[in-house]
Amino acid sequence: MGQTAVTDKRRELHLNAFLMEAGHHEASWRRPDSNPRADFDLDHWIGLARLAESAKFDSLFLADGPATTGTGEFRPPGQLEPLTLLTALSQATQRIGLIATVSTTYNDPYNLARRLASVDHVSRGRAGWNIVTSAGADEAANFGLDDRPGHAARYARAEEFLSVAKALWDSWESEAVVADKATGRYADPARIHQISHRGQHFTVAGPLNVERPPQGYPLLVQAGSSEDGKDFAARHAEAIFTAHQTYERASGFYADIKKRARAAGRHPDGVIVLPGIVPYIGSTEGEARALAKQFDDLRVPEYGLLALSRVFELEPGDFELDAPLPDPVLARPTLEGSQSRSDLIIEMAVRENLTVRQILSRLGGGRGHFEFAGTPDQVADTIVEWFSGGAADGFNIMAPALPAGLQTFIDQVLPILRRAGLFREEYEGTTLREHYGLDVPPNQFHVSEAVALAHV
Question: Is the domain defined by 14-171+195-284+369-439 classed in CATH 3.20.20.30?
Answer without folding.
Answer: yes
